[in-house]
Predict the structure.
Amino acid sequence: MAIVAMDIKNADFTSIFNIASLQNKLLVDLHWFTLAVCLMIGLVVTGLMIAIIAKFRTAENDDGSEPRQTRGNIRLEIIWTAIPLFIVIVLGIMTAYVMIIVNPAVGTKRKPDVIVVGHQWWWEYQYPNYGVTTANELYLPVGKNALFEVRSADVVHSFWVVAFGQKMDAIPGHPTNMWIHPTKKGLFLGTCSEYCGAQHGLMRIIANVVSPEDFDTWIKAQNAMPESSNDPAVAKGKQLFNSETCVQCHQIAGDPAAKAHIGPDLTHIAQRKTLGAGVLENNTANLAKWMQNPQQFKPGVNMPNMRLTDENAHDIAVYLESLK
Amino acid sequence: MTQGTLPSSHNPVNWVAEVPEYKGILSWLTSIDHKQLGLMYIMSAFGFLVVGAFLGLTIRLQLMFPMSHVVSQEGYNQIFTMHGTTMVFFVGMPLLFGFAVYLTPLMIGARDMAFPRLNAFGYWVYLFGAALLFFSFLAGGGPSAGWFAYPPLSEKGYLFNSGQNYWALSLFLTGLGSVATGINIIVTVLTMRAPGMTFKRVPLFVWMIFMDAFLVVFSLPALNAALVMILFDRTLNTHFFDATVGGSPLLWQHFFWFFGHPEVYILILPGWGAISEVIPVFSRKVLFGAGVMAASTVAITFLSFGVWVHHMFATGLGFSPLYIFAVTSLLIAVPTGIKVWSWLATMWGGKLRFTVSLLHAMAFLLQFTIGGLSGVMFAVIPIDWQLTDSYFVVAHFHYVLVGGMLFSLIAGVYYWYPKAVGRMMSETIGKWQFWLMVIGFNGTFFVMHILGILGMPRRVWTYPKGMPGWAELNLFSSCCSFILVASILLFVYNLVWSFYHGKIAGPNPWNAWTLEWLAESPPIAENFERVPVVRSRRPLWDLQFGSGGDGEEDHHA
Amino acid sequence: MHSQLSATKPVHPLDTNIKVNRNILGMLFFIASESMFFLLLILAYVNFHNQYGIGQMAAWHLDVVKTGMFSIALFSSSFTLWLAERAHAKQSGLAILWMVVTIGLGIIFITGQALEYTKLVQENLTISRDMFGSTFFTLTGFHGFHVIVGLILLSVALWVMVRGRQHEITDAGLTCVSLYWHFVDLVWVAVFSVVYLWRFMK
């Protein structure tokens, strides 16, 4: 079952030191400073330990006498209290400074640009300014400071795109906010970062940062009705989709029967790179297999084994893959 | 209190297996003697250590390769839940209580603890609680919400088998035992010290245990309150943490971590105490800055109740609530650092004997420093925003808990085993165990710092292929974890081998200075025939050289 | 003074131990730990108090006057217990009488609680109905449980006293029981203020 697919080959390097947002630039700067300080302290301790081992081993011909006893040294103790105190004060000031800049308070007037809703075990993204709802793949325009509101539909999750820097928990009943100002285009990977049950490990995040023009194009495509197709398989697939239990959970814009919000929105599923929040590459064959038995690929997921025949699964897959 | 029920003996033996009061299993099952109970705590703890280590090994086996299927995701989630719960509550707590109840009376010149029957109660309720939790696997499945069991996941709606109920009930019970033992320790130290043993002359180990007991008495009840609430949510349909009916998942996090942070200090303080005894003895130097060492412990005890939100920095509580806790978390680093400097200064200028005990103490110093420094990084909130809930945190707490607590308590075991058993532990086996443990531990956990930086989240049952660095680093970590587990098994083997084949120790094999070394090895039933008047923190040094063992003036009655 | 169950050992001139009876110390620290437990239950109640109209619900469903009267019974029982202790110290036979009164007052309180619970459940206010039910019953329920334990302790103490050799219960033993009972009382002062009286403050 070793299937995974995310466009990892083309993804930007996943690391907190890969600076893909203005916020992360500050976080990384602070990180390097703190790391340098900690490394220095660590080296001092290590150096002292090495010196101790080298210098103060009991000699073979030791006479058994006691070495000179030191019970304390006021000056030394003041120094090794004052210097760490000074260091933590500096770190404290820098902490406040970076916190205020990276996560300024959000008034109630500003509508979020992106609402992230964590579900077990997929992500829903809403763009309230554009009336767009999608799932599992996030699009952002480069160079614009985006206000995120992070929510949960069930248990506690946490939204973290590694190269953007910070993460923010998704807690039911307690919406949270985060600012992300992407600084370079690319494909950035992330992950759910709060243990949320069976498939916490495969609740992946895919963030596409594109030019503002491409972003507008994507928004328009999301708002548009999916193109209808003349392919009879598509029509059959659509009919099956509406009559099987799919519509109990999934929404497709333009289909009056499919209005449920339990599972991911499938209006433009054909555009996505992966299925199951990063588990399978998105193509017709995989989609059919997923529908027949999602438990095989992501055991514990809330979508049950749909018990479709191969032919029906194929037809529904063809229909869904027509929803660009 | 009737002293008459505790037997006395006047013919000391030189091997614990020959102690007449310990013959027969009934003497152990009905014992209220602090030495027997201490040994039972420690043996149980090491038994569970092996269990917890194999749970950890299974975790590493599953994570050795991406998209692996050594265990299912459901099995994995139960395994890591049990790994954490076992290590904290069934290994860490009983280990430190075992050290505490065994050593405290001996080190203060007392006959037993203040409440011997309560002592037994504490042990048996712990064992019962542990058995109850493992029983859950036979009763429909174990808990799988992690050792910290955040709701809503831990609520009935998401995890409906009884495992979480067993988890809450089991920890509630062991918590009662812990509080009982904490009270016992406090009253013992307050009321049973030898004549002349002021608080300034109490051994540092006893001081740390004493402060630890305060942490226990004030923080475990907070956990019990939270456990009551989650148990009621799950069984009586209350709604404390159910957001859909007005409850608050965040409230659990506050309550749990209000307990959880003092808990980690509960786990480390006894090890600090052991180190504060071991390092001076094997450096032939009095502890540098003993008064400050004691004072900094008091500071840490108080501060530890004021840092809990640093486990919640990514929950969006707003600038002020978060920043206060960044300040307290940064501040608590200062008294902690002072200890490291003091221990180093103790060794500086000494005449070091590199016994296995001291080796573990030195590894502790370096590893605990690394763990402490990564902790300071987390106090810097923006860094926490990057790295919390990633493998960087896993690295941090294993460095302080395994590299810190376990290594320091193993140093204590090598140091005090001769006193309890009457025989020395094997230095040869010990050196092998030490180096394997150092290599295994650091190999397993150091690379996790890097994995966190590369974005690997924690508590995941598997990870995708193709993530740069993840497969290689996980493979390395998993290979080293075999070495770590082997070293733990070798340690347990050394305990058993030395029991039968160790050299007879005598009362004071290390030429140490605190009162327990006045007693026989193993001690007679009432510990001491006669307790001397104490004039310093090093009474045996005074007996040997006259007074002034700690630079104090002689006090005449 | 009374003879103790174990003879007091002569104290060494250099003894620096705290001179409080160890059982009393143990009880004090036990009370400290229980205080933390109740503190968190109270905080949970307080946390939800302003949400979802819990304050109003308390006003609507709870009868301050009736519960106040039962509370007075509980508070009085602390006073009568103090009288019992004083009588015991003077080896007076009134000690038993005051112990009985104390227990009686405690029973009145717990009966009042039971009646209140019954009335609430009949009004369909159960522990699982909403946040008020959850927090109210948990907090007052655990307090009631501690009262029952206290009544058991008091009864055991009374039984020891009644067996005729009244001086068998030690000062320390009676003090421990009374400390526990006073603690239970104090907790009720806090709970009553927070749950029953707070809504009068606006």
Chain B touches chain C through 48 residues (CB under 8 Å).
